[in-house]
Design brief:
Helix content is 22%, strand content 22%. It contains four helices and seven strands, in the order E-E-E-H-E-H-E-H-E-E-H. The longest helix is centred in the middle third of the chain and has 14 residues. Bound molecules: iron/sulfur cluster. Iron/sulfur cluster binds next to loops. The site of iron/sulfur cluster has 13 residues, from loops.
Length: 162
């Protein structure tokens, strides 16, 4: 698998100061996608154990509140294994910091995946240009949902962040 970009200090994708990684490859091809350079599964750079090590090291700083995983499509079958490994190792090392993931897949399609055990918030669903709303927080269109995964799994009931 491959990734596009790592941001060392990101204040626009999730709460507080964060490290972000944009995975490479997305098959959804949403109209007016904000990140078309991540579509090509052969683009970007190779995602390796060293990449995970680098991300974990960047997350060490006290001011970094969490890790954001975006795309591209982090949950695509070509990418989910690496996303899971990164999320698992992050949570083992930083149990008090949070992980937010953006995916074009819906929660219902992902709910049996191991990766959900390690993430705190999932912003789900493809971007729909006709439902674009600039006032929304953390998402681009109103069909997308910001889901508290910990509470959702705990109560077995969809729990949305306001
Ligand atoms: S799912 Fe995200 S990265 Fe993929 S095409 Fe849609 S907006 Fe772009």
């Amino acid at each position: 698998m491959r990734y596009n970009l790592i941001r060392k200090m990101d204040i626009s994708n999730g709460p507080g100061v964060r490290v972000s990684i944009f995975m490479q490859g997305c098959h959804f091809h949403c109209k007016d996608c904000f990140n078309k350079e991540t579509w090509d599964f052969n683009g970007g750079k190779e995602f390796t154990d060293e990449t995970i090590g680098k991300v974990l090291q960047l997350c060490e700083k006290n001011e970094v509140k969490g890790l954001s995983i975006l795309g591209g499509e982090p949950m695509h079958p070509s990418n989910i294994e690496g996303t899971t490994k990164l999320a698992k190792e992050f949570k083992e090392k930083y149990p008090k910091k949070n992980i937010w993931v953006w995916s074009g897949f819906k929660y219902e399609e992902l709910k049996d995946k191991e990766v959900l055990n390690y993430i705190d918030v999932l912003v789900d669903g493809i971007y729909k240009d006709e439902l674009h709303d600039p006032t929304l927080k953390w998402r681009g269109s109103s069909n997308q949902r910001v889901i508290d995964i910990k509470k959702t799994l705990e109560n077995n009931e969809l729990n949305l962040l306001k």
